[in-house]
Write a structure and sequence with these properties.
By secondary structure, the protein is an alpha+beta fold. It has helices at residues 3-13, 24-34, 136-147, 166-176, 180-184, 187-203, 221-231, 240-246, 251-262, 266-284, 291-297, 303-314, 318-324, and strands spanning 15-21, 38-42, 51-57, 61-67, 72-76, 83-91, 94-98, 101-105, 111-113, 119-123, 128-135. A hairpin with a 3-residue loop joins strand 3 (51-57) and strand 4 (61-67). Residues 211-216 have low confidence and may be disordered.
Length: 326
């Protein structure tokens, strides 16, 4: 496992959006659609782009393989940013500036940037990269589930060594796309994204999970078992007693474990996951989908309660999110 293996898998399983494309406007449009708004400049007057972009969509994330084929500078555009970009270099070198931070990225030394500051990247002609795009709302929602607090997430730009553990998870997610397993259990991709984002939040220094050293540790097997049990039953009524029995522990021990390791209760954590799942479904805007269907499928059987909880988390109503995606 590693970035080269992930790059090969992405090239094999993804959709070719650009192939040796020379036209800068086409490159900007395609990369904006797959990643984020930006501007692009070729750094040598007579140089030509030969841009290749391969795209693998997940649920609230995507994995992309991008090579420009020339020395370029990529910088902030005019659009609204709503994502985090995790960049894993495959070849070449790139200087990343995000706000006041500057980091040189090379194979084995990746970066992550958020949606909060201006950015500029300068790449050499050999630069090749895997870019993982993560939805801002999903990252902040997972962080809220881990810490019990709502707010923006600011990561250190240079990736920590522990983030290498994401490579295997990302390979698993890309491998599952369009697989028979996902046809039978569509929530698998969503659950893998959950683990990917949690791992990133716990491994990469940031202003949320790193503030409490005890929370910045992987959860114990017992708590992970409880989380998986609840995730598999998001649409069903689930009691804390049932979760504790399934995990072979007492309600009191389970409650104490969640507070110690996640800073929340099992009920609050499950509610957060249900709201996240509802947001992902509504944002997908599948044909024929209704707010009622989403509420019931995510374990909310009182529509007023669902609407209040959803608006408290995301600042908009469920129907507004669904309408925006159609």
């Amino acid at each position: 496992m590693g970035v080269p293996a992930l790059a090969r898998l992405t090239a094999d399983r993804g959709r070719a959006v650009l192939s040796e494309t020379e036209d800068a406007d086409r490159v900007i449009d395609a990369c904006t659609g797959a990643l984020r708004p930006h501007s692009l400049a070729v750094r040598k007057a007579r140089a030509r782009l030969a841009t290749t972009l391969t795209h693998v969509p997940l649920r609230d994330a995507s994995v992309n393989l991008l090579r420009y084929g020339a020395e370029v500078t990529v910088s902030s555009g005019d659009g609204v940013l709503d994502d985090y970009l995790l960049t894993l270099p495959v070849a070449g070198a790139g200087m990343f500036r995000y706000g006041d931070a500057e980091v040189l990225a090379t194979p084995g030394r990746g970066v992550i940037i958020g949606p909060h500051r201006e950015f500029e990247f300068a790449f050499d002609a050999a630069w090749d990269q895997v870019i993982v795009r993560l939805d801002r709302a999903r990252v902040e929602s997972v962080a809220a589930g881990l810490t019990g607090e709502v707010g923006p997430v600011h990561f250190d730009v240079a990736l920590a060594e522990d983030v290498i553990s994401l490579n295997g998870l990302l390979e698993s997610a890309v491998s599952l796309v369009d697989s028979a397993a996902v046809e039978h259990r569509p929530q698998l991709i969503w659950q893998l994204e959950q683990v990917i984002i949690e791992t990133l939040l716990l491994a990469q220094p940031n202003n949320r999970t790193a503030a409490d050293p005890e929370r910045a540790q992987p959860v114990s097997p017992r708590i992970r078992q409880a989380m998986d049990f609840m995730l598999d039953r998001l649409s069903d009524p689930v009691t804390v007693t049932a979760v504790a029995e399934a995990c072979g522990t007492s309600v009191r021990s389970l409650q104490a474990g969640f507070r110690r390791e996640l800073g929340t209760t099992p009920v609050q954590w499950l509610r957060s996951q249900r709201i996240e799942r509802a947001h992902a479904l509504l944002a997908g805007g599948a044909p024929g989908l209704s707010v009622t269907d989403v509420a019931y499928s995510c374990g909310f059987f009182h529509l007023g309660e669902f609407g209040t909880a959803f608006r408290s988390r995301y600042g908009v109503t469920p129907s507004a999110v669904l309408a925006e995606r159609r």
